[in-house]
Amino acid sequence: MAGNEWINGYLEAILDSQAQGIEETQQKPQTSVALRDGEGDFFNPTKYFVEEVVSGVDETDLHRTWLKVVATRNSRERNSRLENMCWRIWHLTRKKKQLEWEDAQRVANRRLEREQGRRDATEDLYEDLSEGEKVDGAGEIIPPETPRIQLQRNSSSVDIWSDDKKENRLYVVLISLHGLVRGENMELGCDSDTGGQVKYVVELARALARMPGVYRVDLFTRQICSSEVDWSYAEPTEMLTTSSADDCDGDETGESSGAYIIRIPFGPRDKYLPKEILWPYIQEFVDGALAHILNMSKVLGEQIGKGKPVWPYVIHGHYADAGDSAALLSGALNVPMVLTGHSLGRNKLEQLLKQGRQSKEDINSTYKIKRRIEAEELSLDAAELVITSTRQEIDEQWGLYDGFDVKLEKVLRARARRGVNCHGRYMPRMAVIPPGMDFTNVVVQEDTLDGDGELASLVGGVEGSSPKAVPTIWSDVMRFFTNPHKPMILALSRPDPKKNITTLLKAFGECRHLRELANLTLIMGNRDDIDELPSGNASVLTTALKLIDKYDLYGSVAYPKHHKQSDVPDIYRLAANTKGVFINPALVEPFGLTLIEAAAHGLPMVATKNGGPVDILQALHNGLLVDPHDQEAIANALLKLVSEKNLWNECRINGWKNIHLFSWPEHCRTYLTRVASCRMRHPQWQTDADEMAAQEDECSLNDSLKDVQDMSLRLSVDGDKPSWNASLDPPNSNDPVKQIMSRMKQQPEAKSKPEVQQGKKQGDNVGSRFPVLRRRERLIVLAADCYDEEGAVDVKSMVTMIQNIVKAVRSDTKMAKNSGFALSTSMPLDELISFFKSAKIQVSDFDTLICSSGSEVYYPGAEEGKLLPDPDYSSHIDYRWGNEGLKNTVWKLMNTTAVGGEARNKGSPSLVEEDMASSNEHCVAYLIKDRSKVMRIDDLRQKLRLRGLRCHPMYCRNSTRLQIVPLLASRSQALRYLFVRWRLNVANMYVVVGEHGDTDYEELISGTHKTVIVKGLVTLGSDALLRSTDLRDDIVPSESPFIGFLKADSPVNEITDILKQLSKAGG
């Protein structure tokens, strides 16, 4: 609060209002403050103001009101306004203290929950160790303190990425969804979504494409066809320039090699949307990106894969929205995922709550913060590796998340190295890899007279000499200075309160020696009119201008209104030519890219000691760290570097000598080394088998452009499929199709599932029935959760729905042609078959059955009523699945924790019992005894994450069952599996659901498939037990051309009409 001039003015106004008894009030010890004197009618808030307000209130929101107060001439009206203002301050203070108390409680509760989770996990793990291991590993189980993550470029324990990796020819996928992304003339700063992240991901894509062993890099973002933005953002594909022909290795170039921006349309096609509005359309992006990746894997397979698909080496999500997308894509393709958070939701929420200006509800409404945090937690569930810029990001930001615990991560990593079972517990690895920089345009100049000559030419220092061509921005800056030859102190940031520009100005203004020795240049973004800027930015600029006037800094401070991105290197060069210093005084700096840019241009630095600059200084040794709140320390550090030329030269040389540590080649080498140490995964099935068998009848490339609604590079995803009925036994015994079918003979016999076809006749009949799904042009998925109060199937509603949908499809000749049906349910296979028998429905009417909430996939066999399990699905979803460890933990949690996460009393009856009939290898099922007392899904998932367990829990069958399936399994992900496995066109999938359903119901609605919501079909669902805060509007779009509505009693012709209407959507 020190130095805020308006507070002094406030106190003066109180004194000017001739309030009586102030001294008496200050001297008398009172337990409460009287706002009015008993004898008069005037305002007397001094004691309260000094003791409570000045020391505890952020005055920013009240500043404008205060300006109006001091402008009031009428004494009585002025006093009244002062009183009202003080009451406002009092209420703000009370609210802030309440929020601080709530925050302290929340932090304490989280600490207790984390400690309990870690204790439960380590107790379970400890039981597995032998007596010798318990003694040897006792120090590992609960480490005494958080391990220090060292900033290391190379690790001796891993194979460093080098030029001998050329033969790898990798395909890398990067995702950055929000903002305006293009390769040239980036509009950085045009809005809050188009900033450093956009520049980083574009440069990362370019740099990775130059690395040996990397063949192609795709950077996915959103396609925007809006008149509000430039036409270039509507281009489906943009090739990023990689390197000159001299730099390219002939073996690495190819028709599809290099780096590309791939723009996928999702959400409203004609609008530019801020990132907070994109959440409901994430699954649309996933389907579009998946279509492109499938196409590209096939194309690259033909070019460099010897006919076999080339799958992505890694899928890397940037920020929460892209992390959510990358998790779904990684699960569908079974390839590793990497995450970079850039800015984290929990950290932002903590900061906003501490400010006390907004409630949690207001913060969530503005920033969609809860949806963002959940996306970050889901990203942690799926990520193999999380890349951060600094250690501070790991310890102080990711440490806030349920899905990451530094201590537990160390324990699990130690067990994994020793080959000890972790019972499905997992923590992602964190790697500190600072962002790279492009130094190709930076010219390292030794101390010469060139810089002085340019400056002399600019200011006319040599009579008769011809002026040199100097950058325009130099003139724009130098015109502010009385003596432009002084060393320049340079600060470059947007006018944000967190950047602490006002403290820098005060430090400069109050240090006479510093003012005499140096000039100060403030590059504070671009502006035309301060009043048109956001309130926070306008406030900073207004305060800065007032401080310049207060300290009479005219002629010593430059603050140009405009600059271009291309001017920034010239600004650094100007400061270096004057032997100046770069300063970043931010209160907290997550990384500090400008510090590296400045060092590359030969500028020593003074930087905040909070955040990334600590790591940068340790690497570069080119400056000093300061407390950003200490004006005197800032002034002394600047004075030291400006006045001590030997120190200045030493810092300058150190910066140049060590700057290669932050180059893009070094960043990419470390990046690829870290990724190579991940658990490499890729689809196990031979997806090219069907292509080889169907070459003669495959549709042409141009005819299949419609299949993906222009969501990719306009490549085929298979159009019409050939018939498999012509031959039961392909003539070539080495046929890949036959190899796949032979694997089905090796499936272990399921004793509890007598209807599943087994035995030696299985292989003979597979040829005519099993591949029928991949020949479908259209798939109708029935996923309505029709159950009664007790969780039993509502046979009447279910049968009526199935019959009406089938009749509607078959009533239209065009639609009936080559359409198939699938049933997706939480019922186990045995119960589903019993339902079919009671309803007299033939199993063969369906091309596939998705059972037990997506944990099993079956296809009809040749014999009537027989079913074949998918031979690859079980291994596909097995990732991070810990069946036995999960059972023990869930049983304990469900019977000791109630609604809201509160502990239940000891001796209370159990709330769940294991449902053996519904359980299988990849589904742990429980019967719910009292649904009113069980915890919600978000609470359960949080507690499982705290214990290192990654899975997909859900309530189903009207909250009478709890089913927990693997992380990669769900009913919606099973549909994507069919898309990838059999190249089904997701745009031609029609998913039929009710208005309510199981807690995975929301996941079935969004996407590029068509969704039919049948109103009145499902009256009882499990939705209420999903989460404590309703986030449906952030998951399901309120309006979408892909969603249609029917009534439960709609006639067949209306069903047909809505299916036809939806078939035209997205075309």
TrEMBL record:
Q: Which pathway does the protein contribute to?
A: Glycan biosynthesis; sucrose biosynthesis; sucrose from D-fructose 6-phosphate and UDP-alpha-D-glucose: step 1/2
Polar residues compositional bias, start-end = 724-736
Tell me the CDD domains matching this sequence: GT4_sucrose_synthase, HAD_SPS
Q: Where is the Glycosyl transferase family domain?
A: 483-655
Q: Where is the Sucrose synthase first GT-B domain?
A: 171-439
Q: Which Pfam families does the entry link to?
A: Glycos_transf_1, GT-B_Sucrose_synth, S6PP
Q: Highest taxon of the source?
A: Eukaryota
User: What's an example Gene Ontology biological process for this entry?
Assistant: sucrose biosynthetic process
Entry annotated with the keyword ATP-binding: no
| Entry's EC annotation | 2.4.1.14
InterPro entries referenced in this protein's UniProt entry, alphabetically: Glyco_trans_1, SPP-like_dom, SPS, SPS_C, SPS_pln, Sucrose_synth_GT-B1
An MF annotation (GO) of this entry: sucrose-phosphate synthase activity
The record's region (Disordered) falls at 719-768
Q: What sequence ranges are listed for the domain Sucrose phosphatase-like?
A: 815-1014
Keyword entries, A-Z: Glycosyltransferase, Transferase
Q: Which family does the entry's similarity section mention?
A: Belongs to the glycosyltransferase 1 family.
Know the name of this protein? Sucrose-phosphate synthase
